[in-house]
Amino acid sequence: MTRRQPIATGSDWNFEILDAFEHEIARLADEYRLDTYPNQIEVITTEQMMDAYASVGMPVGYHHWSFGKQFLAVEQAYRRGQMGLAYELVINSDPCIAYLMEENTLMMQVLVMAHACYGHNSFFKGNYLFRTWTDAPSIVDYLVFARKYISECEERHGVEAVEQLLDACHALQNYGVDRYKRPSPVSAEEESRRQTEREEHLQAQVNMLWRTIPGRPRGDALAGMVDEEDPLGLHGGGRYPPEPQENLLYFIEKNAPLLAPWQREVVRIVRKLAQYFYPQRQTQVMNEGWACFWHYTLMNRLYEEGLVDEGLMLEFLQSHTSVVQQPAFDSPYFSGINPYALGFAIFTDLKRICEAPTQEDREWFPDTAGSDWRETLEFAMRNFKDESFIQQFLSPKVMRDLKLFMVVDDDQEEMLEVAAIHDERGYRRLRDSLSVQYALAVREPNIQVYAADIRGDRSLTLRHVQDGRRPLARSVYPVIRHLHQLWGFPVRLESVENDEVVRRYHWPLAEEERRE
Amino acid sequence: MTYFIDRRANAKHKSAVNRQRFLDRYRTRIKRSVEEAVNRRSITDMERGEKVSIPARDISEPVFQHGPGGERAIVAPGNKEFVEGDRLRRPGGGGGGDGSGEGSASNQGEGVDEFAFTLSREEFLDFVFDGLELPHLERKNLVDLDEVRQVRAGVSRDGTPARINIVRSMREAQARRIAMRAPIRRALREAVEALAEEERKDPVLRNPARISELKEEIERLEKRLEAVPFIDTYDLRYNNLIDQPQPSSKAVMFCVMDVSGSMTQAHKDIAKRFYLLLYLFLERNYEKVELVFVRHHTAAKEVDEEEFFYSRETGGTIVSSALTLVDEIIEARYPAGQWNLYVAQASDGDNWDDDSVACRKLLVERLMPRLQYFTYVEITPHAHQALWEEYERVEAEYDKRFAMRQIVEAGDIYPVFRELFKRRVAP
């Protein structure tokens, strides 16, 4: 290969240089058949980056104090020099919006373009979760709609009323996602038009449900059984909802008895946005690993072709190494497993398994070993989430390299026990356990709507399916308080383990409990 | 396809609204911190922001989470000496190290218990002066004011070329052209029609004289049509500016202080803090604030700031000397029509007995009619003397524009200041 002149040297950049680099990266990415959305690269200032950060990466967000708090926290940390700002931020939209900070050196800009505009971008476009759950072309439109709608509500109903509603919704937003159903994409105008229709329709539906005249009992399960307390079967008719509902916000939106139509719409907005971020929460390791893998590959190609000089390459390697570094558990810098490190290690090792498999790899990955690496990586990127990706592709070599070990923490035992280490006996258990650690269903308590007492006191009962005797944190009280605000009637929460209710929470609290 | 967009010039403070919402929400807490800061800070220190901490518990956004306890497995990196089956003591501090958490939680700064952030200078002063208001801000009478501002007031027919209003001038010109050409065009059309009719006639019946007459007429009319000027001086319109009396945006603050032997440096520091608060407050309300320092013992003198606060004098006290000097300075340099006048006087209450009556007279007759506000603080733990009593009589007469308070120690300044300027409910 003929080595060419570096496009630029030193750390200064301008738009021509960026353009030239972008062009070369695009050419290389194309060689690797990376399929991406068009890129929209925006150069912004530090302060704008903090803004973008504070609004969790939404280019347009509605107003809420929590974003202000976020901003102050970011600003404070940045001023104290505690945290370098992330050098990049990329938004899952079509075109894919990526931010470059003006303070970045030339190397950083090139790195960010490779990482975000080709790494993350192709992940957003290819991964099945993003394909299923998010709609890149319409998200910005939807955000615009949400912002407009919420500010209209503020005008009509007062900032405070909207703020309280949003507080309550935010507390439940992690439980505002459908895990199985696919939502359909719509544009902002369409959304706005539908919103009006929905208001009417929804209210009618709720009215039906809460009619005070009881309908005919519907429950077949209880048919034939005569309840001595209720011989006329007034309270019969089965549980509502008949099946537990995992999407709490959806349930609230459709069934909360007292919410006004606009309040239902706000619940819906929060729910929709939670849904949009849902894939990101499930693919941290993969997404970052994929982006790191590609920036590493692309930067090396640029160097091989002579388009960047040694100076830039050294700066890059220094930066790259610190990004994919994994401090040991006893290091003062340890703060859990670094998703960049783990993801990068798995993808890199997967390439090695394809190109130069060892005997061990052939045993562990009979189908993968020796296959075309580009196709294998593409397959891995497209069809997995963190949980299944680790289960499928975490190799013994990566476990050895990271020196992984598993500790069992049982509060009934006095000591912790090392249950598995990176050895022949431990590989599988380590892998299972790490995979579970990334399962969203395990990371967050499993809580579902169990019953709404539509014929009685209108109370709402949730069920927390407890596993391994792990109780809920104390934050459960403020959260069910918020839920109570939305529902408008008493809220109960039961922790159930092995079909047995082990703990009950409820809101509002009785007088004597409040004083505790 | 890739686009580069340079957004750096875009609006910066995208988060300003959210930031403000946050500050509003925790207003009472932040205000408490700010008040503590004001009392703690040194005088020269008012001009910067303030770090404020709020207990993180109060502002947390709760979500369902796993609590400590139960049985769980943790995978961690960096094993050095452990083998399967090893038993370890629990690391201190209980549940710690449940790493991996959510991505966004990591940038909350070090303080788990305190949420700390910095108020900007503006925000800080907003909190300091929250709920305060300058008394007597309503203007005496607009006609009294010499200050004027030129404002646009429609268009006029004369003016300087620099103020020509092109759009209006062209519109006038077009209107005039239409108006002037219309009768000519009509006559022309009639002549052309007549000529055409004449020419359609049988050659025998034609009237050659009439034809040539019509042809001449047409030519004459066409010339006239062309002669209508495209633009005329008559069309020109000028932007009209008029002078409008303007509430004065300038204020001058007289700092009057007793520097006789009985005033210690501690007294002066207290006075200085009071002046400083007043100065910052005025600065927020007026575009331009000038300071005049007048100190006095038996005689008054205008001095610079350094000398005002730090040079020592001894001797007796004649307060009226200072008031007379203030009066002279106003007379000479700050006409009341153009300046908002504020006087802040600090003293330990000593004065020559018969001078106090003179002070009252001077105030009532000369100064008060022209001042926006007069504040007097007496820095003394002792009982009041003659001056205070005389001033009380002034206060009775000018209760809206004259205020006096006693300060015993530095901690009193801020509360006293707030009391002096607290927003009064409109009567």
From TrEMBL, chain A:
Family annotation (InterPro entries): Spore_V_R (IPR007390), SpoVR-like_C (IPR057008), SpoVR_N (IPR056174), Ycgb-like (IPR057270)
Top-level lineage group: Bacteria
Positions of the SpoVR-like C-terminal domain: 445-497
Pfam families (alphabetical): SpoVR, SpoVR_C
Residue ranges constituting the SpoVR protein-like N-terminal domain according to the UniProt record: 12-440
PANTHER family: STAGE V SPORULATION PROTEIN R
Name of the protein this chain belongs to: SpoVR family protein
Automatic annotation (TrEMBL), chain B:
One Pfam assignment: DUF444
Organism listed in the record: Halomonas saccharevitans
InterPro entries xrefs: UPF0229 (IPR006698)
Region named Disordered: 81-109
Coiled-coil stretches: none
Name used for this protein in its record: UPF0229 protein RSO68_12035
Superkingdom of the source species: Bacteria
Family: Belongs to the UPF0229 family.
Gly residues bias: start-end ranges: 91-102
